[in-house]
User: What shape does this take?
Amino acid sequence: CDFQVIYASAIKGMAGLAPDGLADDLGPLFEAIVRCIPEPVIDKDGALQML
Assistant: This one.
């Protein structure tokens, strides 16, 4: 994903790919997050790191 636009209203709990086509939940927002943001690269055998 280069650039994804998601229209959302947290107050109404709605999201969608078009301002006039919002779903009744935040599913489109969460689907875009899973699709466009890569999982972190970790080293399971490395030292514990905390922020």
